[in-house]
Design brief:
By secondary structure, the chain is mostly beta strands. It has one domain (12-482). The protein has helices spanning 12-16, 90-98, 246-249, and strands at residues 27-29, 33-35, 43-47, 50-52, 54-55, 58-59, 67-76, 79-86, 131-135, 138-142, 149-151, 158-161, 179-181, 185-192, 197-204, 210-218, 228-229, 233-238, 241-243, 259-261, 267-273, 280-284, 288-298, 301-309, 333-340, 346-352, 356-360, 372-378, 387-394, 400-404, 409-411, 415-418, 426-434, 439-446, 456-459, 470-473. The strands form nine sheets. Strands 1, 3, 4, 7, 8 and 36 form a six-stranded antiparallel beta sheet that branches. Strands 2, 31, 32, 33, 34 and 35 form a six-stranded antiparallel beta sheet that branches. It has a four-stranded antiparallel beta sheet with strand order 9-10-11-12, with no helix packed on it. Strand 7 and strand 8 (79-86) form a beta hairpin. The two termini are 40 Å apart. The structure holds fe (ii) ion.
Length: 483
């Protein structure tokens, strides 16, 4: 590990600076670069996240309610062209015109005017803010409760809702966590949940041809944000939560505040054969999972690596997320689950104690035995805290390499860009909010030598609010970057 930092690892005011709305849309060559952008880095990084975090003078209750703003960074010939644009959903446009919150947010944002103005209003704003992928000629902004929005990859203009050729009829949801099978398929799911739930599973070829489609019932309320794809299975962790919608219906809270974690109930691991067949359920100790790192099959076992919280890390309706006490929330820790498909035994071990999120692996290792996972991590080695570094973990040996962005730097997801077949041969691209500049940097790390620090740091002229997920394609779209 290169970086040694001492407490205090960060200042809350610095962290808060990365939650400011970015109302402007930009398009420019990044001229301020420290280090050298690799000459062999060619293609486009897309990243989505909440760009607007307030409206009409009222802050959203949670960043997850923020309106989707897509970032595009085109790399060619050792240079980088940056662009950002909002996803122009009709709901976003209506709020722009009114300069007022017109829709409630899932994570607790309420319309002004108190409960009387929110009661019984259960309309959802498609905020299209969670991920962005390029597949089969389409650039799609994803949000798990609705169909995707299609964007023009040349300029990020919004083209409209996309039902994938009628497959997502009647507003069927399409999750923000598709997985790419190394065999060349995009696999994704959509959950329709309530007192009982069902999962739709879709596998698409490179032309959006539907290769497989399953629909499975799931007992109880299903909060499923992500899944694991192996060679033969889809795997979900069904968190032990109850949903009492009354406070939401009455206009007191968002839907997310109606989730109650039940530590007495097990987490249910749902294993669904890709070839078809019933859902098999395996039980493990209560934990809460948003994201999975990877998983694979080994004999009669499934090896599943997931980021687990002791309970649902929620913010209640009275708490301001900007002043949240991190120490009162559980931290995400990487755990390995071994599910024996024959005996039904599930064992789990801790792979990484340090608070972490946003796991990534080499795309060719998805669903296969693997060695290296890349994560955003806290600088504090034990406590829950904002992500301030990138860590490479060898899950076979426990060996670690880490780079920390300093006490005033706050990192996002490290997107892995392969350079070859070797698992650690690639670049890691991440957005870093630099509180010293009150602007955002884009950092390029060598995945094989994370501890060496950035090979290049691109200094943007402005800040980009903390984001969620993104992806990379070796293709170039931006007209400016093709010359
Ligand atoms: Fe996610």
């Amino acid at each position: 590990m290169t970086s040694v930092v001492a407490p205090p690892y960060y200042r809350l005011e610095d962290w808060q600076g990365g939650h400011r709305t970015q109302p402007q849309e930009f398009a420019y060559w990044v001229e301020e670069v420290t280090g050298t952008i690799p000459a062999d880095l060619t293609g486009t990084l897309f990243r989505n996240g909440p760009g607007r975090l307030d409206r009409g003078g009222q802050r959203y209750h949670h960043p997850f309610d923020g309106d989707g703003m897509v970032n595009q960074v085109s790399f060619c010939n050792g240079r980088a062209f940056y662009r950002n644009r909002y996803v122009q959903t009709p709901e976003f446009q209506a709020e722009q015109r009114a300069d007022k919150i017109l829709y409630r947010g899932v994570f607790g944002t309420l319309k002004p005017g108190g409960w009387w103005n929110n009661i019984f209003d259960l309309r959802l704003k498609n905020i299209a803010n969670t991920n962005v992928i390029y597949w089969g000629g389409k650039l799609l902004a994803l949000w798990e409760a609705a169909p995707p929005y299609r964007l023009d990859p040349a300029n990020l203009a919004t083209l409209g809702l996309d039902d994938l050729g009628g497959i997502l009829a009647n507003g069927q949801p399409f999750s923000a966590h598709p997985r790419l099978d190394p065999q060349g398929f995009l696999v994704n799911f959509g959950v329709q949940t309530g007192p009982s739930s069902h999962i739709n599973l879709y596998e698409f070829d490179a032309n959006w041809g539907l290769v497989r489609h399953h629909k499975h019932p799931v007992a109880g309320f299903a909060f499923l944000h992500d899944f694991i794809l192996t060679e033969n299975y889809y795997v979900f962790f069904q968190n032990p939560v109850h949903f009492n919608p009354l406070p939401y219906i009455l206009g007191w809270t968002g839907a997310a505040q109606c989730l109650q974690f039940d530590a007495e109930q097990p987490t249910r691991i749902l294993v669904i054969p890709r070839q078809g067949g019933p859902v098999r359920v395996f039980l493990t100790d209560a934990c809460f999972v948003f994201h999975h790192a990877n998983g694979y099959e080994q004999g009669n076992e499934l090896i599943l690596d997931s980021i687990c919280y002791r309970h649902f890390p929620t913010i209640d309706q009275q708490t301001d997320y900007q002043t949240v006490d991190f120490s009162r929330l559980p931290s995400g820790q990487l755990r390995r689950f071994r599910v024996n498909l024959t005996t039904h035994q599930v064992r789990n071990t801790l792979l990484l104690e340090r608070c972490c999120e946003f796991p990534q692996v080499h795309p060719q290792r998805v669903g296969r035995a693997y060695r290296w996972v890349y994560l955003g991590v806290a600088a504090d080695p034990v406590a829950n805290a904002p992500l301030q570094g990138i860590l490479a973990l060898d899950v076979q040996t426990g060996r670690q390499q880490m780079w920390l962005a300093g006490s005033r730097g706050f990192v996002g997801e490290p997107v892995f860009v392969p350079r070859g077949e070797a698992e650690d041969q690639g670049w890691l691209l991440t957005f870093v909010y630099n509180a010293a500049r009150q602007c955002t940097d884009i950092v390029i790390l060598d995945a094989a030598d994370v501890a060496a620090g950035p090979v290049a740091t691109l200094h943007l002229r402005h800040h980009v609010p903390y984001g969620l997920h993104g992806s990379f394609t070796p293709l170039l779209f931006a007209e400016e970057a093709r010359v």
